[in-house]
Every structure is written in structure tokens, then in C-alpha cells.
Amino acid sequence: MNRYSNFNKSRHIICALIYFLFFVNVSYSQIVYSIKGSGWGDRTEIKEINIANCTQKIIYNEFVSDGYNDIAFCPDGNFYLLGLNEILYKINIRTKEVSEIPIPRELGSFQGLVSDAEGKLYLTNEKVVIYDVKSNTFTDIGILPEGYRSADLTVYKGDFYLSGRRNTPDNSSAILRLNTTDASKSEILFTSIGRKYSFVSMATTYNDCDDVRIFGFGSGADVLVEINLQNGSLDTLCTGRIAGDSFGGTSPTEFLSSDTECDLLFDLDRDNSSGEYPYDFRVSGIQCTQQKIARIVDGDVYLNTSAELDSIVLTLSGALNGMDESIWIGNAVDADFTEEVIDGSTKRYVLKMNSDRSDESWKTALRSLDYFNLSFTPVPGERQIRFEAFNSIKSKVATTYILIDHTIQVGRDTTIAVCGHVVIPNLSTYIGGEPGAFWNPPLSRYDVYDSALDTSSVYRYLSMNQYCPNDTSIVTIIRGADIKLDIPSEVSICGSETYTVVVPVQAGDVVTWSDGSTESIRVLSTSGRYSVTITKPDGCSATATIDVKHRDDTIEQNVEVEICPGTTYKYKDGEANIGDTIVDRIPSNMGCDTLLIIRILAAEEIRISRDTMTCDNGAITIDGQTYQPGMTIEQRLASQVGCDTILTLHYQYRPSSFTGVILSDTVVCEGDEVSVSISGSGTNIQWSNGKTGDSTHLGIGRHSVTGIDDTGCLQTYEVEIGSAENFDYEIALEDAHCGMTDGIISVINHQSDTLTEVYINGEETARLVDVPPGQYEVIVVNEKGCFRKDTVYIIGLSGVEVEIDTEISGKQGSTRELPYRVKGGTITDIGFDPVEDIHHDKDKIVVNIISDRVYEIRFIDENGCEVISTLQVKVDEESISTSNAMANIISMQPNNAENGRLFLKRQGVRYDLRVYDRWGNRLYEGLNLAGGDAESGWIPGSSKVQSGVYVYRITVYDAGGKEEVVGSVTVVF
Questions:
Q1: What is the Cα–Cα distance from 19 to 4, expressed in whole angstroms?
Q2: Alpha-carbon span 609 to 649, nearest angstrom
Q3: What is the pLDDT of residues 421-465, one digit of tens each?
Q4: Alpha carbons 566 and 642: distance in angstroms, whole number
Q5: What is the pLDDT of residues 161-203, one digit of tens each?
Q6: How far apart are CA 827 and CA 848, in angstroms?
């Protein structure tokens, strides 16, 4: 919305007046209003009630309409009345001006009304509608729950509360909390059942965030009570006729209770008396005054904080007078106030309190801030001062608007006599005015009077301002006769020549020459300067001056002669070429001689422009230079008589009546053909396949067609038809292994956008698994329907044969080597299960015989085929485990030496003994020990080991060879 619309202009004055009338010298947080006027022909009576002392007075008593349901005070400074006839009435009490706002009929009728701080009116009955005063729009937010209708509503600490009633036998009423987005979800707080009250009207007064009170005007009893919204209890304040005849209630501070910002609430104009709301302030008092000094917050500036303010940053923007505009603070304020220039029209100020940082101290500092414009000619326009307050919780922004204007001085009434052509620049300044107003009728050029263009006899200079008084000055134009003296300013005469001057005169004209002559016709024969003035009877005059000079020089006559290049010009007895100059003096008996100057120039060559074409639009060669269509060719054509001719040939592109060849397709399968036709008109059409006529069928390859077009030119077109058999794929085969049917055929498509179908042995698939050995047919079809057939083979791979013994035996700890033989392939890997004490060495299996066990040996060939053989290992009875006894437990503190040693008890053999801990660390090694010798072997006490289990390995040497035994022994203390 335009900030200076008629809506806002009117409210500026209204708000200030209402503030003066109703709020000055009264604590307006103690005031409520009620309305009466429900009978036919009754006046609209608005009463002001002081709830502190229960006094009342009538502040408005005029006939507006036949009855009302409710009243609301809006931050735009007006009262709004809810009429019985679906009309909102806006009332300016000071001027008694009344405006009507129709409520759309489809919305229904309403009984309750209240305003919030943003200028939105809430209308209630069985439904709730919001009317925006600024945008003039209605918004329906739904119906109330459980059949309730609302007679009135008010706003209390940011929430809207309704006095509801429904048609029940007990005619019960209730207090509801409104859901402002969906009225049907409103909350019923408590009802009047069991209570002796019901309410027609409610109103709220607001002092600050901690002082908000809600009141009810009783129905059926002349009472004004305060309502406790926590439990529904009542506190009677006033009784009697003071409130009993009310049909609606409001207060001058009711809309302020919609504020919920109490951590930091910052309002430059608490009662919105300047017309800006909810938090802003407008300075209009200096608008048209000469002195541009004003306070930038209202006297009721409001501040409520939960934590002390840190600072307030003020930004002055739109300063059209640049450095002449600033903000000052009073000297008595104990604060720091710093200024920073942002650019030519913007300044930033930071306000910080030095000691007392209370809300009251900050408000005192704000009230001492003044805007100054020290320019002698303030530039009209709006300035903005943006306030941003900060504390540790949040920040808050509000704006002061300052509109500066002035009445333009239009100067004095003036009469201007115009003789001849007169131009007066800056006409407004000429009459003592200021630029910026406008002329009526308009001048041909802004503020410039030109007598040749501006022909009106009266001009008015008008200063018309939207905000300041108007002014007018009048310029009267008196036009005299238009005089023109068409006399040359300078003439020359030679010898005895004279010059005659004729001054145009009419009856009553006076002619005056500078030498005293009054003749209107003068014959001048002597050199000198002569001035003549003609004066009309109306006083307008014109003066002209003529210089007469005698000279003895010649009169120069210049002549230009054009000849063709290569020719000469004959003058008297001589000839001249192009570029020569002939000078000849021609004597005169009466006046000056003539000096004839003839300049010989080249005549312009003859140029001819023509177009040419060829049938093939090919290159042409002229005088060794090659030209293509679109190029220009220039030739010089020599002439025996006259000038040469320049011929310009424009080699034009000759369009053919044939436009090309049309193909039904550009690619075909082998053996197929496509339809081909020549487009356009012509004759003698011949195809390279021998066919004639406009169309034919062609297969893969390069072809041509010729024909005579409508201009008689032979045209040839080439046609190429490609093969559609563009197959890009591969066939991957995996042969069947080891006599199994596990072969795989896969077609890998490298051109997924063209291959459409794949068949393997007649089955539509790109992958066939579990394929036995044999021959298979693969067919691939592309998007053109072309196909390719391949024959592939799956080979069956046979496993090898292995010959190996399946049973061996030996002494415990001995090692056996078991050779094997392979037929029909090569063994690449051998696996064992279990894997202990057996390994593969070249072409034999090596087994350490430790205990009876059965091994599964897997022989794997180069094709991955397996041959599985079973090997049974047995320990001979005469092994070390039975005849070569070793101790199972030995002691660190033995009763005898043998119990403290680990040694081989078998006699007649030599052996090696190695002992390891559980991590594989070798603790002892004894080589070539004598069996049965208790003095040999491992002594744990000497190794300083702990009690626990240890592993030993014995290699025994006897006449039969060697055998190894691995076992464990437990060491105890």
C-alpha cells in the first residue's frame, strides 16, 4: 500500500486528535468504551467509562444507523462499529466523518468485534471472519464448536477470547479461546452453568506486559466486572446504569494486548497516535515548516525487556540533503552516541547507556533524540530512521518515517512586453520564484519562455502540493508588432559602383540613420558603417547595421569542369588534364575584374549492374579469377567515345525446381530395397538403375538420378543407402566341466539401442545355462529386422585319472612318502581333509604318522575337475607311544630326580628333544641324547618356567630309521 494514500493521510490527523481528546491527562489503561443505539431512530451513543472511579461521559452522540452489535478501537485511530445491517462503520469522532464498509452477504451477520495491533478486525457470530483494515479484505476462518455463537470477543495477552452462547434449555453461555486459523478448533474454557452471569460484551485494558486486565459487561444486570480467565471468577467493579445498557465494549489499549513480545517489546508510538502501527512512528509536524527539526519517537515510546538492552542501532536512510541531515542527542543524557557515514544518503548511529540501563533510562534517552535538517533548501521526500534494539535474548526493529516538503515560492505577478523574438530562460527565477512548480498552459520548453513558440497571453506558475498549501503567480504577455530588417550586414563595391538600401516602412514608422538621414531608400557610394533604426507607433523598434567597403581586388569566380579519364580540356590556346587548375583574369570597365578559376575534375564513370546465373551453380572463371555464387564480378569496358563503363556482375545462386531426393529409409537389410523419389518438378528423370519417372526402389550402395528442371538445367543428385546390418555383439561360451551339463552360452550386446531379439536354439534369450556338450544355433535380430546366424559348440571336459595307494601304516612319529600316477591330464592343485601331518611334495604325498586317521585327498586338474581318493593311516603297535614312554607330569620340586626331568625312557636309542611354550617359543633343545638316561633331558627348574602345559617334539633314531613324536607335558610346583 502507498504509505501516503488517502487512507493514511486522514488517519495521521485523526490519531493525534483522538489522543489529545481522550488520552491526555487520563491513564488510558483505565478507560473502556461502551456503545448504545439499538432502537429505530436512536442516536449512536459512545460512552467513556473510567474503571478506576466508575465515572462515565458521552464522547459521541450522533445518528449513524439503526442499531449496532459491538464497537472496536483500531490502531488507525478510528472507532469501528458493527451494524445490524451487515455494514462496518468507521467513525472519526473529532470530524464526525463516517465511512461505510459493506460486509459481503455470503459471510452472514455478526455480533462481536475486536481489533489487534496490526489493524485486523475480528468479527464473530456462529463463525469468525477477519477484516484487514489496510488491504480491505475479508477472510473466513470457520465456525465455532458445539453450536456456540459469540456475542463479543476481546484479545488478552496474544490470545482471543469469546463470550459464547448457544440455544439450549438453560441458555448457557461460556468463555472460549479462539483458534485464529480454524475457529472450529477453539477451546471452551468454562461455562456459566452454576454461575450467575452471562456476558454480552467484553473488553481488555493494557498497561504493559505485566498489567493486562479483562472486563465483562453483564447482561441482565447493570454490572461491570473483571474476569479471571484461570477459573472464571468475577470481581465486581461498577454497578448501575454505567454499563447495563451496553451493546458492545472496547478500550483505547485493547489492541495492544495482541502483543506477546515481552522479552523485548519496543514501540516508538505506543498509542499509534501518529498513524503508523503497530510499532512505528510518523513525524508530520515539520512537513511544511521552514525549520526541519523534530523528535523521532513519540512521548509514549514503550520499552519492556526481560534482559537489559545492550544497544540501539539507528540507521538514517533517504537523506536527500546528504551531510546537512543528522540525528542529535540531548547533552543531559548519560550515554554514548556515535555516528558513522555509510554513503551520501545513509548514516548509522549507535546508542549505548553508560550507567543506568533500566527501561526507563533507555526511554528517556530515546525521547531526547532529534532529527535535524540544516539545509536552506530541504529536498522534498521521505526519510526513514530504522531502530534496532538488542539484548541478550533477541532484537526488535521499528521505524520512524519523516516526510519533508515545502510550498514552492512562485514569485510575483508580472507583465512582459514582447517586441520581436524573445527567449527568457528560467522564467520562474525571472519573476522571483523557485524551480519545481509548473506552468499552465505548459511552456514549449520547461521553464523557458520562447515568444516564437509560446503564444498564450497569460501564464500561471502553480505550486500544488499534496501536503503543503498551494500558491500561484500570473505572467501577462503583451506582444508588439513584429519588425524584421532584411538588410545585409556587409557589402563591397568596386570603382564607381553604388549600393541601394531599401528600409521597409508603414504608415507611422520612423526611420533614423546613424548619420542623421531619415530616408527609407538610401544609395550608398562611399565606404563606412551605417546604422538604421525603424520605430513603430507601439514603441517596438529594430536596428540593423551595414558595412560598405571599397576594394580594388578581383571578383573570384570558381568553375568546375568534369572530363572523362584519359581526355584533356581545351581552354583558349591550351589544354588541361584532370587535376589541373586554369586561372584567367577578365577585366571590367565598370566594377571589379573577375578572376576566373577553372578546376578540371574527373567525370564519374558509367556503372552498369547485372545479374548472372549458371545451371550447376559452380565456380566460373573470368580473367583468371574464380567466382562462386553470391560473389560480385567487376569489369571495366573501354569506350572510344566518352568515359569507360564499369560492368558489375552479381553471380546469383539459381534455385532449381527440383528440391532433392526423398528416401523412405537410409539403411536396409541385405537384399531389401527402399522407396526413393525426387521432389519438385522437372522432366527426363533417369535413375542409375535404369528406371525413369519420379520414383523407384533402390538397394544398398551409391546411386544417382538426373533430370531437367523447369529452368532447363540438368540436375544430378547422389543417393547412398547403407546397410542396416550393424551388429555389435559377442558370444561368450563356457564349456561343460568334468562330464557335467553346466555349459553356458551368453550373447553380450554392445549396441543395446539396435539389437532387439536374441534366440539360442529357438529359445528367445540372451543367456542359456546348464548346457550339455553339443552344437547350438544363435540368431540375433536388430531393430531393422535384419538377422545374423551363428553356430557355436559346447565342449565337454573329461576329468583325469589318479592311481595312489589307499592305505599305509608305520611307527608312531615316522614319515611315509606315497607316490601317485596321473593319466589323461595334469594335476594343478591337491587338497587334504584333514590338513594336519600331510603335505604334497612334487609327485608324492608325504605323511607324518602320528595317529590312526583317514584322509580325503582331492586332485584338481587344469580344467578344475576333481578326483577324490581316500587314504587310511594306521600306527604300528610298536610305536613310541607304547614302548618309548615319556612323563606326562613333572614337578619343579620333585621327590626324586626323575620326577623333575623330561626324558625318553626307552633304552638303546639316540634322540633329539625340543620343548616349546604355548606361543611356540622354544625353551629347550637337546640333541643326540641317550635313551633311558635320567640325567639327560629337560629340567623345568633350570629354565625358570611357570607351572603350565608345554609341548615337546622327539626325533628318535634307531636301526629302522627315524620317527618323530609330538606330545605335551604338565609342569607343577
A1: 21
A2: 6
A3: 889 999 999 998 888 888 999 999 999 999 889 989 999 999 877
A4: 10
A5: 988 888 776 667 788 899 999 999 999 887 765 555 566 678 8
A6: 23
